[in-house]
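Hey forum,

I'm writing up a methods section and want to include a predicted complex as supplementary material. The small molecule is thymidine-5'-triphosphate. I've pasted the protein sequence and the SMILES. Can someone with a working setup run it? I'll credit the forum in the acknowledgements.
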Amino acid sequence: MTNIVLASSSPRRKELLSQVFIPYTVHAADVDETILEGTMPSDAVEQLALRKAEEIFALYPDAAVIGADTVVVHNGHILGKPADAVEARAMITALSGTIHSVYTGVAIKTRNEQIIFHEKTDVEFWDLSEEEIASYIETGEPFDKAGGYGIQSAGALFVKAIQGDYFTVVGLPISSLYRHLKRLGIVTGTFSS
Ligand SMILES: Cc1cn([C@H]2C[C@H](O)[C@@H](COP(=O)(O)OP(=O)(O)OP(=O)(O)O)O2)c(=O)[nH]c1=O
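Reply by user p_vandermeer:
Happy to help. Structure tokens for the complex are below, copy them as they are.
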């Protein structure tokens, strides 16, 4: 059986693989996440996911290495993680009362195969008050999350509607990933907790 190595430091990605009983180990990648100006969001998340998978695959050439990357896209702008509270406020204020898209790219790299795909989910936010935004930023939640919010935590209160896979927003489209892993023979399709 091929071992799975998750090339990620994201606690959400680890939780999602654990939640569905896919056995894995973790070796976080440390790549340059700069994206060329003008790159399409779908290409950007795929390129970064592959960059992460490739870096760690070099260390585990017999494994199946999974890399992933998530960005928020609003009015044509790609939003990564906010650098500070000022940027977090600007991001969440922009998202308030509007619809944005969350793109997650995933790369699976094995000795024989390389699969890269992305999923997109649209998220609509309620109108948010300045007070709500300020107190959300105080929780510290925005800083390790694309777009400055976490749908899986208090950011859930901002969400009016979503269209697409919820787990794409959290950072790993787990059911699509599972289907690719099954097709490659890396997971079997039976569950063992
Ligand atoms: C929009 C949104 C993003 N996120 C997270 C998912 C990702 O962890 C993060 C986007 O940053 P990424 O650069 O995709 O991932 P990361 O730096 O956390 O981890 P690594 O590169 O080591 O794999 O934002 C949420 O947890 N909830 C959300 O609702």
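Some notes you might quote in the supplement: The chain has a mean pLDDT of 96. The chain has one domain: 4-183.
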